[in-house]
Amino acid sequence: MAQKQEPVVAIYPGSFDPITSGHLDVIERGSRLFDRLIVAILGNEAKSPLFSLAERMEMLSEAVAPFPNVQVDCFEGLLADYALRKGARGILRGIRAISDYEYELQMALMNRRLQPHLETIFLPAGEQYSFVSSRLVKEVARLGGDITGLVPPPVERRLRARWAPHGDQAKKDNQKK
Ligand code: PNS
Fold it and tell me: pTM of whole model > 0.90?
């Protein structure tokens, strides 16, 4: 009788401040590779994010709704420890350019040193998104540029609201002046 295989769980970690169309492309392709994919937002970042953890969880949950084997979670501390707690065998990361690779390789090797059974799987970014980063999208949105298609539509609406003349962030910025 054939042995029942354990479901393969992978983690897709990141700051997701906010999720971009490039992230979503990696999620969609990753959802076809693993039985379960957990998109895990790092919660205790030193850098102050534009969107709160709750907002990022909400945007991600909305974006991954079409993929039944993808769930959204958040974590603090070491990714390798979190992966162990979740029973994950893989960490999924997208690579946009060779410049990403150096840092990603260091992280992959460190994570494997911390948890020897934890493998990192790199997916090349979709070529149409190879220039897209959360940082650049935020900058372009803040300066009034067109970000259509670079982020999922609900994220685009939130970014526009954030930087609209009467948006929350714009109000804060004006108060500082
Ligand atoms: O989207 P990002 O900012 O490139 O994601 C980086 C992230 C969250 C994957 C990385 O900073 C991380 O794993 N942080 C958790 C702390 C940790 O485990 N550090 C050692 C990594 S080798």
Answer: yes
